[in-house]
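Q: What structure does this chain adopt?
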Amino acid sequence: MAGYESAEPEVAGVRVPDTRLAAEATELVRETAPELIYHHSRRVYYFGALRGRRRGLSYDPELLYLGAMFHDLGLGEEYRNSGRRFEVDSADEARRFLAARAVPEDSIRRVWTAIALHTTPGIPEFMEPEVALVTAGVEYDVLGLGYDSLDEADRTAIVARHPRPDFKRRILAAFTEGVAPKPETTFGNVKADVLAHFVPGFTPGDFVTTIEESAWPE
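A:
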């Protein structure tokens, strides 16, 4: 929005967009998500932006920021009985937020897609830059993929701004809490691994068995 000035400092050569939309998204996530998710989401933006710079990608920083900030909101307690993948719940929250502010549909689509696909490796990297870079930021912060591809000084500056104490254990706990009440939503995706490790008695869905036991006669 014209006339809005952000007090956000530059971190590792990256700035949070100086827009009212970005500021309102920041406020919403700070108020509704745990500190763990807030700091993780901010790091996803910074890491995604840096990986985009290294790849020479031209992207819309505001859309990348919105995708990063909303990508894990669906892990929240209010969504645990939705029966849908948490990624879709997160994406739909972003859609509602953006539609209420008259954001163009193509921009909403990019943000929705970036969020919905952020745990589906092998696809986002071939899509629009904003979609690719939300996933790239998530993969860097959670999985450490391409860890040495970013400068240590940049990585240190980002983590100083948004610390990650005991992050591996805590994010796995957040994933478990977010999806354990709807285990059927992990069929065919990475969160099945989380439940297999942390939920006693969980049996992941099996693609081959699903085909063999389908209702189709042979």
